[in-house]
Specification:
Blueprint lengths: L4 E2 L13 E5 L3 H12 L3 E6 L6 H6 L3 E4 H7 L2 E4 L3 H12 L8 E4 L3 H4 L10 E7 L3 H9 L6 E7 L5 H11 L7 E3 L2 H16 L1 H16 L4 H30 L2 H14 L3 H14 L1 H11 L3 H11 L2 H11 L7 E4 L2 E4 L12
Parallel strand pairs: 2-3, 2-5, 3-4, 5-6, 6-7, 8-9
Antiparallel strand pairs: 1-9, 7-8, 10-11
């Protein structure tokens, strides 16, 4: 059965008419949600901690900024756009005590609902709009007149009109321009974590490093290895993005296409079994338990893993080469914070 996609005509903006939306957080997703909603004619306020460094950024963009608790008190719709690991504390401290009955509590990712870290009261709507792209893309595509596709879900419908409100929110951030797909918090969370770990972040990163190391250890120049295993990856992914695997294979040489068919399965032998193990850890909650424990212990393991890969040879070689190609708008990551060399990338001060 073909999944149904919902577009602008399926989402009535009147479902949010006269309502105030509080976006809690002004990081990668938060800044894009707030600005897109504002530009769509929605009354938006931003909720931040008193000392947040994002406060002057939001105010400079012309947004009204309140302390988190005050923003929730003033809002009919509350979007939690702070990092997954911070949501439980922010919810319990500032959101739950100030959440109005009948309010719509929104999420951009289902992690905290799926794993029971946030438990909303029965008298509020609970929904999700999860854009399938980073916040700076959600914003830039909106400004160009397009939209980033999204998933949406309703976990709890206390008002009887939660679905209409969630769809109106999706329209407000521009996602119904591209299409939104209905799902559940469980399905979104498990597939999102799996995609990140098995392929989009984890799998791709591991393959790139392994391919680079294989060439360098065989005596090839590191710079050449970088171009073959990292730089050209974007060119291939762009072809897939536009026309799938068939268009990529149509666009490359016959030699490359044949190598795809005969060598790709050799490289990934055993990968599908490993992917099933990864998915099982996600479904059982084992990954979430481990990640939460790492954060509650102070995050030392996370910082060690980050530092180890920051110093990988491919990162050192790549930084030198990218600095000589300003047309790429290269970005240098220092101490965990992205600083754009050519131009700033908005909203990179926090994940999601």
């Amino acid at each position: 059965m073909t999944a149904k996609m919902y577009y602008d005509n399926d989402a009535d903006p009147a479902a949010l008419e006269g309502q105030t939306v509080a976006v809690i957080g002004y990081g990668s997703q938060g800044h894009a949600h707030a600005l897109n909603l504002r530009d769509s004619g929605v009354n938006v306020i931003v909720g931040l901690a008193p000392g947040s460094r994002s406060r002057p950024l939001a105010e400079a963009a012309g947004l009204r900024v309140l302390d988190t608790g005050a923003a929730v008190t003033a809002a009919d719709v509350v979007m939690i756009a702070v990092p997954d690991t911070a949501q439980k504390s922010v919810y319990e401290t500032d959101i739950a005590p100030n959440l109005r009955p009948g309010a719509l509590l929104m999420f951009a990712h289902g992690f905290n609902i799926r794993f029971g870290r946030v438990r909303p009261p029965a008298d509020v709507d609970v929904g999700m709009v999860a854009p399938k792209g980073p916040g700076h893309l959600l914003r830039s595509v909106y400004e160009q007149g397009g939209g980033v596709p999204a998933l949406f879900a309703v976990e709890q419908d206390a008002s009887g009109i939660a679905r209409a409100r969630v769809l109106a929110y999706a329209r407000g951030i521009g996602s119904t321009r591209a299409g939104v797909l209905e799902t559940t918090f469980k399905e979104e969370t498990e597939t999102d974590l799996f995609g990140e770990q098995a392929l989009l972040c984890g799998g791709v990163s591991a393959l790139v490093k392994a391919a680079f190391e294989t060439l360098v250890e065989a005596g090839y120049q590191p710079e050449l290895a970088y171009f073959e295993t990292m730089h050209e990856l974007k060119l291939i992914v762009d072809l897939m993005y536009r026309g799938g695997l068939n268009f990529m294979r149509f666009s490359v040489s016959d030699t490359a296409e044949y190598g795809d068919y005969v060598s790709g399965p050799r490289v990934t032998e055993g990968a599908k079994a490993a992917m099933k193990d990864v998915l099982a850890d996600i479904q059982s909650g084992a990954f979430a338990t481990r990640w939460i424990a790492v954060q509650e212990a102070g995050g030392a393991e996370f910082r060690e893993l980050r530092e180890r890969d920051r110093n990988h040879q491919i990162e050192q070689v790549g930084a030198d080469l990218r600095a000589k190609m300003p047309f790429l708008r290269p970005v240098v990551v220092d101490a965990g914070q992205a600083q754009a060399v050519a131009s700033a990338v908005p909203g990179q001060e926090g994940p999601r």
